[in-house]
Structures are given as structure tokens and as C-alpha cells.
Amino acid sequence: MIWDQTTIQLQEYPRGVHLITNDVLANGPELVNCQVGLLHLFIQHTSASLAINENADPDVRGDIERHLNVMVPENASHYEHTLEGPDDMPAHIKSILIGPSLTIPVSGGHLALGTWQGIYLCEHRNRGGGRRIVATLQGRW
């Protein structure tokens, strides 16, 4: 049984939903020798989240971002936490709704994602800065 952990430093992404599967594969723990295991990803931020969804058509990512903005609008009159800008409190709510972590099966040295699945960074701030993801691999060589 092996354990491996690394922190992935992502570049700054603009607000929106971004496909980061290749960033995770290039900068995360080495999967190639892991025959069966789990890759756990945890984002260390309260205004961004991680998800798995469509990896082919970028319209899906745009639609998700637009829908989240309708569900959780900026400048809602009931927000008390407003000192960090109009996008901050909605970012916290979106992060809770989507979540900070993913667990992905590893099989035969590869992520066992479906054909049309990819890993998303959901950046909920207009200028969130670079993001850190702790990637922990547990498995059997």
C-alpha cells in the first residue's frame, strides 16, 4: 500500500468554470504505477470549488457559471458579509454548494473517469488569485 501527497499550485483563472484535468495529471502524484487506488483532491480556499462534469463542450462550463450566478446573485439585500466586494459572499455560498473536494478512483495507472468527464476548478471570485489543491494518492502498486 502506498500513500503520496503533493500540493498543486494552479495559475490564476478568471471567474468561471475551468477544465483542469491536465493540470492535475501533470502536477499531482504519480499515477502510472498505481494499479488500484483513490486520488483525493482538496482545494484550500473558501471561494472556489472542485467538480467533475463534461470535458468536451465548453458551452457546458459557461452554462454552469451562468446558472450559478442566477441561483446565487451578487448584491442580495440579505447579505451581511459585504466588505470584500460583491462577488465574495456569493463565492462562499457557491463553494459550499459545489464542495471543496473530490475522490476519483485510479485503475491501471489512470484516473477512472468516464469518457466525457473532466475535473473542474470552479472559480467564484472575479480575481481569486492562484489556487492550491492538496492531492493525496492512496493505492496499491
From TrEMBL:
<comment type="similarity">
    <text>Belongs to the UPF0047 family.</text>
</comment>
<protein>
    <submittedName>
        <fullName>Secondary thiamine-phosphate synthase enzyme</fullName>
    </submittedName>
</protein>
<dbReference type="InterPro" id="IPR035917">
    <property type="entry name" value="YjbQ-like_sf"/>
</dbReference>
<dbReference type="Pfam" id="PF01894">
    <property type="entry name" value="YjbQ"/>
</dbReference>
<dbReference type="InterPro" id="IPR001602">
    <property type="entry name" value="UPF0047_YjbQ-like"/>
</dbReference>
